[in-house]
Design goal:
single chain, about 260 residues, alpha+beta, four-stranded antiparallel sheet, about 25% helix, about 25% strand, globular, binds 2-amino-4-trifluoromethylsulfanyl-butyric acid, binds cobalt (II) ion
C-alpha cells in the first residue's frame, strides 16, 4: 500500500476545497423543505459550485454519474440519484453528499437533513450516526490505527442497536477523489494501518436501523437497505495533524 502524505502546501489547498464543500451544504440547507425535488437541490448545488465558487463538481462524470450531489432518502444508504419526481415530504430523512474540486484538490462531505417534523426513531438514527462520525474523528492522531476508528464507530452504533454498513467505506482523498487507504467503519482497536501526520481521508459511516445488508438498484447507483428500513450517513474530510486531526469540511453549524 502506498499511502500519500500531503505537504503543508497541499493541505492548504485541501483546506480550501474542504471549506467550499462545507459551504455547499450550508448554502443548500434552507432549501431542504417539504415540496422541493432532489433534482432542484442538485441544480442549486451545481450552479453554486460552478458560478459562485468557480470550482468543479467532482461527481459529474465520475464513473458515469451525471449529477452534482447524491441525495439519499430514508431507506437509501448512499448514491441516491437526484430526480425531479423525488419530492421531499414531511418526515423524510435525507443525506446530501457533495464533493468539490478546487485547483485540483478535493473536499468530500455529507450531512443529514430532517425534513419537516420527523418521527423520534428517525431523529435518533440521524443523531446517533453523527455521534458515530465524531467518535471516529476523536481517535484520529499519529500512532493510532485505522481499526481504532472503525471500533469507535461500530461500538457506538451497536450500543444503540443499529448496524454498520460494511459494503461501502471512507477513503483517502487528495488530488485523487478516492485513493488508498480504505476507511472501514467497523473493526478492532490496534489493527490496520498506523496513522501518520499529513494523511488525508474521509470518515463517512452509514448506519442502519435494521440489518447491515445492502442492495444496488438496476440504475447501477442507488444503494438501499436490504430490509427496507432507514439508513443515515454523515461524512467529513480530514487531515492527521501532530496531535490529532483537523476537519477540513467543518460547517459553521458544528461546535468547537
Ligand atoms: N461522495 C461519495 C463518497 O463519499 C461518492 C459519490 S460517487 C458518485 O465517497 F458518483 F455517486 F457521486
Ligand atoms: Co461523499
Ligand atoms: Co467520500
Amino acid at each position: 500500500m502506498n499511502i500519500s502524505i500531503k505537504t503543508l502546501e497541499e493541505i492548504k489547498k485541501m483546506r480550501i476545497a474542504g471549506k467550499l464543500a462545507a459551504e455547499v451544504l450550508e448554502m443548500i440547507t434552507p432549501h431542504v423543505l417539504p415540496g422541493i425535488s432532489t433534482e432542484k437541490l442538485d441544480q442549486l448545488c451545481n450552479e453554486y459550485i460552478i458560478n459562485v465558487q468557480k470550482a468543479v463538481p467532482a461527481n459529474v462524470g465520475y464513473k458515469g454519474y451525471e449529477k452534482t450531489i447524491c441525495a439519499s432518502l430514508n431507506n437509501v444508504i448512499c448514491h441516491g440519484i437526484p430526480n425531479e419526481k423525488k419530492i421531499l415530504k414531511d418526515g423524510d430523512i435525507l443525506n446530501i453528499d457533495v464533493t468539490v474540486i478546487k485547483n485540483g484538490w478535493h473536499g468530500d462531505t455529507s450531512k443529514m437533513f430532517l425534513v419537516g417534523k420527523c418521527a423520534p426513531h428517525n431523529e435518533r438514527l440521524v443523531k446517533v450516526t453523527q455521534e458515530c462520525l465524531y467518535k471516529g474523528i476523536e481517535v484520529v492522531k499519529p500512532g493510532a490505527h485505522l481499526g481504532d476508528i472503525g471500533h469507535a464507530i461500530q461500538t457506538h452504533a451497536e450500543k444503540n442497536y443499529y448496524s454498520v454498513v460494511e459494503d461501502y467505506c471512507g477513503h483517502g482523498i487528495g488530488s485523487v477523489y478516492h485513493e488508498e487507504p480504505q476507511i472501514l467503519h467497523y473493526g478492532n482497536k490496534g489493527e490496520g494501518l498506523e496513522l501518520k501526520e499529513g494523511m488525508c481521508f474521509t470518515i463517512e459511516p452509514m448506519i442502519n436501523q435494521g440489518t447491515k445488508y445492502t442492495k444496488t438498484l438496476k440504475d447501477g447507483w442507488t444503494v438501499e437497505t436490504k430490509d427496507g428500513r432507514n439508513s443515515a450517513q454523515w461524512e467529513h474530510t480530514l487531515t492527521v495533524t501532530k496531535n490529532g486531526c483537523e476537519i477540513l469540511t467543518k460547517r459553521n453549524d458544528e461546535h468547537q
